[in-house]
């Protein structure tokens, strides 16, 4: 059985169904990211796990212990669950040391040593202990919030958009450090985020939510390469969705004949990721679908190149590709587009 087990959780607020029969299993020591657009129910799910809300129906168990069974729920402070909020939610008038030690009894033996140990765990300098939160950077504040949440040795750690207030560089490094730290401590973690790249890089299990339901749950690679429908595909990154005729593991589409991960026959829709498309100068290549560059959007490291397919009979006649800034083709260049690897066929024909 999984460590955290969520079965059939539903929660309504008046006429709004925030959660609609959510099932989720989380293995001990793993990291799960819950992603989905705003309003899809991510925070409600997190609050129900934490114990700040009770479900209308459904069950939550942790390590075999029932935390909530419908509206009957164990109080939050008895659950052994740590929470790091979006902005860290540190106490502004307390020092870093007192923030970290907030959950530790005043007279706990070795209290100061424990606080120093927690500070070291989140890789902050001991000189920070006397500072107040407003004397720290955003990334440092999040690390203090994490140290505070770790102080009570939680069985489960919940992270609610923990890096969203940080700028891009700091965000990536803080995320890596936090993931490594939680892994080393063996703490089962659930993170809520609306950032797909963050979810894919942080977690070993990703759960995609929409309108109160979990649409797909699986390892990041599986969700990115084999999403159940175009909405999930697009939520997890840019996707090229094309109509295709399928037969015996191959698809015929505007880009030619492409190998697919399905043996169905008939009409269907396939997905490619932009990084699978390779541009070659028409004069140097005879393979690939012919096209003409119609637009370039220079954006630094990765630029957008829009190509009009010259032999496309249907509406899927334009493709957006990502190319490095070096050697960008000029508008008007005749090119050929070749496909690297295979395409994914959406499982339901109508999807
Ligand atoms: P997310 O975290 O994915 O943005 P939420 O869980 O916050 O989504 O919200 C899911 C839905 O439930 C939204 O439509 C939201 O407006 C509604 N909702 C959440 N909390 C409350 C509440 N306390 N009262 C009324 N509606 C709520």
Structural account:
This protein has a six-stranded mixed β-sheet with strand order 7-8-9-3-10-11, sandwiched between helices. Strands 2-1-4-5-6 form a five-stranded antiparallel β-sheet, with helices on one face. Strands 14-13-12-15-21 form a five-stranded antiparallel β-sheet, with no helix packed on it. 36% of the residues are buried. The chain is globular. The protein has helices at residues 42-50, 96-100, 111-121, 138-150, 168-185, 196-202, 220-225, 230-235, and strands at residues 4-13, 16-26, 31-35, 57-62, 65-69, 72-73, 81-84, 156-160, 188-193, 205-210, 213-218, 240-247, 250-253, 256-259, 266-272, 277-281, 289-297, 302-309, 318-324, 334-339, 344-345. Helix 3 packs across helix 4 (138-150) and helix 4 (138-150) packs parallel to helix 5. The chain has eight helices and 21 strands. The structure holds adenosine-5'-diphosphate (ADP). The site of adenosine-5'-diphosphate has 11 residues, from strand 2 and helix 1. Residues 13, 16, 18, 36, 38-44 line the site of adenosine-5'-diphosphate (ADP).
